[in-house]
UniProtKB/TrEMBL annotation:
Keywords: DNA-binding, Transcription, Transcription regulation. Residues 2-141 form the HTH marR-type domain. SMART domains: HTH_MARR (SM00347). InterPro entries: HTH_MarR-typ, WH-like_DNA-bd_sf, WH_DNA-bd_sf. The keyword DNA-binding applies. This is DNA-binding transcriptional regulator, MarR family. The keyword DNA-binding applies. PANTHER family: TRANSCRIPTIONAL REGULATOR, MARR, TRANSCRIPTIONAL REPRESSOR OF EMRAB OPERON. It comes from Halolactibacillus halophilus. GO terms for molecular function: DNA binding; DNA-binding transcription factor activity. It comes from the Bacteria. It holds the Pfam family MarR.
Length: 151
């Protein structure tokens, strides 16, 4: 690999680290207005995207221990964000189901995060935004592929 490419990779990694930190900070700031924690936000996000999941599936998605995920779901259930439902095909299986309140909260939070990003990118051209979108999509695909290879 050329020195120029290595230097660019160093800058990309550093920029991504800083961007991640800023997004986490802004995300926590937004969550202060809601009755959910960051781990709950992540869990609700997965349930919105994937639909009903078992505790095991959810714990794998959010990278938390099974017992920690159970406690997390207990708190979300208490706040009427989710409910446990028996699987219709196999009554032994219990799935976590996103309730209307949970869906509304997660959609509002995501919308506020998107508004923040729109404010940050407001003076970029449509072509630059589309280019950034494409680059991020390719990077995500490559990272997901790499993760699959390592599992």
């Amino acid at each position: 690999m050329e020195t120029e490419s290595i230097d660019a990779i160093v800058r990309i990694e550093k920029n991504m680290r800083y961007i991640n930190g800023i997004i986490k900070h802004k995300g926590r700031e937004i969550l202060k207005n809601y009755c959910i924690t960051t781990p709950q936000f992540i869990a609700l996000q997965w349930l919105l995207e994937e639909g009903d999941l078992t505790i095991g599936e959810l714990s794998n998605k959010i990278n938390l221990a099974f017992s920690t995920t159970t406690d997390l779901v207990d708190r979300m259930e208490k706040n009427t964000l989710v409910e446990r439902k028996r699987d219709t095909k196999d009554r032994r299986v219990v799935r976590i189901h996103l309730l209307i309140k949970g869906k509304e909260i997660i959609q509002e939070v995501i919308e506020k995060r998107q508004q923040y990003l729109a404010e940050v990118l407001y003076d970029m051209s449509t072509a630059d935004i589309n280019g950034l979108d494409e680059t991020m999509r390719v990077l995500l695909e490559k990272m997901q592929w790499q993760k699959e290879q390592n599992n």
